[in-house]
Amino acid sequence: MGFKRERIKLDDSLITGCSSIYKSLECFYAIKRQLNKDIGSLDTKMEALKNAIMNKAERFDRGWKSKERYSMDWYYPILCGVITGKAGLKRYQLKEKEFIVEGMGCKWSSKSLGLP
User: Fold this and answer.
1) Taking CA 96 as the corner, what is the angle to CA 23 and CA 88, rounded to the nearest 5 degrees?
2) How far apart are CA 32 and CA 24, in angstroms?
3) Do 106 and 100 form a contact (C-beta atoms < 8 A)?
4) Structural domain for 22, as ranges
5) pLDDT digits (tens, 9 = 90+) for 7-57
6) pLDDT of 72-104, one tens digit each?
7) Whole-model pTM?
């Protein structure tokens, strides 16, 4: 998520970081609602962030090697509530066999470390 772009030479983003920011904003939004406080344009900004994560893969991993090989890039958008419902299930099923080891859990990387 790029802030103060004039100071940043590398304009790049991480799926995991942006997903975490989305979840934090969602929690902030819920607190503000409970306190009956104005949220301003937060919902619009959250929707833009969600749209980027879901539909603009070209916005991520532009300045470094893709992080797609790490399971966090796969599950964070689901875990953080960015991708839900049928789209979330589809994303889960897309790489389930790549990252989930039956009876053991989730591998951190698609690169084998001697595990099945």
Assistant:
1) 40
2) 12
3) yes
4) 11-106
5) 556 678 999 999 999 999 999 999 998 999 988 888 888 999 999 999 998
6) 999 999 999 999 999 999 999 999 999 999 999
7) 0.80
φ and ψ at residue 101, rounded to 5 degrees: -110, 115
What value, to the nearest 5°, has the Cα angle with vertex 2 and ends 7 and 27? 135
Tokens of 114: 């001697």
Taking only Cα atoms into account, the Rg of the chain, rounded to an integer number of angstroms, comes to 16
- The SS3 assignment for 81 reads coil
Judge whether 4 lies within some domain: no
- Enter the DSSP assignment of 57: G
Q: How many domains does the chain have?
A: 1
Please give the Cα distance from 107 to 105 (Å, whole number).
Answer: 7
In a domain, 66, yes or no: yes
In a domain, 25, yes or no: yes
> Which spans in the chain are helix H?
15-34, 42-55, 71-79, 85-99
